[in-house]
Amino acid sequence: MVFSPYGFLELPWWGCALVTFLTIETMFLGVTLYLHRDQAHGGLILHPALRHVFRFWLWFSSGAVTREWVAVHRAHHARADREGDPHSPVIFGLRRVLFEGYELYRAAANDPQLLRNFGRGTPDDWLERHIYSAHPYTGIVLFVSANLLLFGVPGIIMIAVHLAAHPFFAGGVINGLAHAVGYRSFEMPSTATNLMPWALLLGGEELHNNHHAFPRSACFAVQRWEVDIGWLWVRLFRALGLAQVRWLAPRPHLERRRHELDADTVAALFTNRMHVLRAYARRVVVPVCRELARNEGRGTLPSSAPRLLVRHPTLLADEGRRKLRELLEEHEVLRRVVEYRDSLQQLWNETAANPARALAALRDWCGRAEASGIAALGDFARGLAAYAPS
Which of 224, 241, 326, 370 has a CA between 20 and 30 Å from the CA of residue 119? Predict the structure, then answer.
C-alpha cells in the first residue's frame, strides 16, 4: 500500500474539521465529567470502565495527569482569587491567564506540596504509576503519530488545533474570562462568572459562577434557562447504568400556603442560602435603590449603587469601598438594608450549632424587617415562610 499525503483516510475538509471537533469535545467531556465532577469534587461517580476510557483519552490526547489536574483545581477553590490561587486573573492579570494559562498550570502541578495537600484520592494503580503519570507525554506522541498516519498533511493542522484547544479554552477562557466577564447569579468571595451562552460547547464549564457557588453539584446549570451540556451526558450515562449522581445544587421549594416560621423553614433557608441571598439582592436591594432614586430625583443616586451594594465586600477595590461607604453614610435606608442582609447571613452560622436558637433569631429578624418601614424588606421577610424542605 502506497502512503498518501492525505493519510490512510482521505477526508474532505469538512471531514477533517468534524473529526477535530469530535476529538476536542471528547477531551472536554473527559475534563468536565471525569477530572472535574468525578475526581475533583465527587458529586458524580462514573463507572470504573467509563473512568478509564476518559483517563486514557485525556492521557492520549492531552497528556493530562489526573492527580495534577485535581490538585491544581482544588487549590483554586481553596484559595479562589487570593494569594496561592494557581491561576487567578486577580493575582496574575487577565492577559497572562488567558494566554499563559498552561504555564501557570504547569508551575502549580510541579509543586510537590500542592500535590500532597490537594491530590488525595486520585487513581494510584499500576497503569497510573507506570504509564499515565510516569510518561505523560508519550500519549501525545502517540496521538500525533496516529493523526499523521490517518490524515497525512491535513493532520498537521488538526493536531495543532486540538493541542491548542485545551490550554486555551480550559486554562485561558475558563480560568481567565470566567473570572473577569459574564454574569453572576451568586455573590461570593470568588470573582467567578458565567460565560453562558457564549461557550455552549465547553461541556458546561462556562457556568463557572454556579460551580463556585455549588462546587460539589454534578450539574452546573442552576437557572432554568441555562444549558449544561455535560449534564446531558450525565443523564445519558446514568440511564445506561454508567454514572451515579451523589449531589446536586439545591433548588428552592416554595409552598405559598406556608405562613408560619418553623424548624423546617430554618433548614430550608440554610440549604438554599445562596438562592436566598440572590433573592434578597433582586427583591430588596434593587427595588429600594429604584425607589430612592425616584423619591430623591435623578442623579442623586449613582447608577452603580445596586452593584456596589450587592457585590461581595472582599471583591471591591479601594475606590469601590470608598463609594460604598459614602452611599451608606448618606442614605440610612441603604445602610439598614445592608445591615439586615448581614444579620440574615449570621443566621446560617447558628443553624447547625443550635437550631432552636436559629429559629428564634429568624422570627426576631422577620419581625423587625416587617416593622422596618421598608416595604420591599417587609415583603421579603413575609415570603421566607414559604421556603420548605424539598
Answer: 241
